Amino acid sequence: MSDARLFGAVAGGLVAGLGLTAMLVAGERKSGKPSELAELERAAAPRLGFDAAEETALPGPREQAVIQGGHLLLSAAAAAVYAASTDEDADVLSSGLLFGLSFYGAMHWIAGPLLGVKKPEWQAGRDTIGMHAMNHILFGLITAAAAKLASRR
């Protein structure tokens, strides 16, 4: 794996993560309800020895920094895994799609429920499953495209 490919993948993962962050924060402001990421953070906080904010309150700036900072760190780490686990000749469409769906499965179907910070994905509605899958597919495709672009330079 080249440094350029790793840098490109991480940059792509961060750009995609920032896009999702913007959508989530905008959704909070529009609906007046905390995002799913805020709910995840609040479910995890007591397990880590921290006090959680009130369940229905919108996150303040400090909590938002923790929530979105953690989300971006996870995005960067996942993108680095993509770069390390795929070949430089990997097709953007197929590798990005597979990566995005794999990351979605790992986080929403396995890790979240096992850690007790979210209900199992199979209990979510069809629309929620579709939205989560599409968000992670886009994440995977952007990460793959950025890695490919960087490795060509």
Task: Describe the model.
The protein has helices at 3-31, 36-44, 61-85, 92-115, 126-151. The protein is mainly alpha-helical. Helix 1 (3-31) packs antiparallel against helix 3 (61-85) and helix 1 (3-31) packs antiparallel against helix 5.
Keywords:
153 residues, mainly alpha, 5 helices, globular
Question: What is the string of helix and strand elements?
Answer: HHHHH
The main pleated sheet reads as: none
Uncertain ranges: none
Mean pLDDT: 94
Q: What number of domains? A: 1
In whole angstroms, the N-to-C terminal distance is 14 Å
Using the alpha-carbon principal axes, give the shape: globular
Q: Report the C-alpha radius of gyration, rounded.
A: 16 Å
Helix content: over 70%
Helix/strand class: mainly alpha
What proportion strand?
Answer: under 5%
Total E-strand runs: 0
Number of helices: 5
Entry summary:
The protein has helices at 3-31, 36-44, 61-85, 92-115, 126-151.
What does the secondary structure layout of this molecule look like, with pairings?
Layout: H1 3-31, H2 36-44, H3 61-85, H4 92-115, H5 126-151
Helix pairs in contact: 1-3, 1-5, 4-5
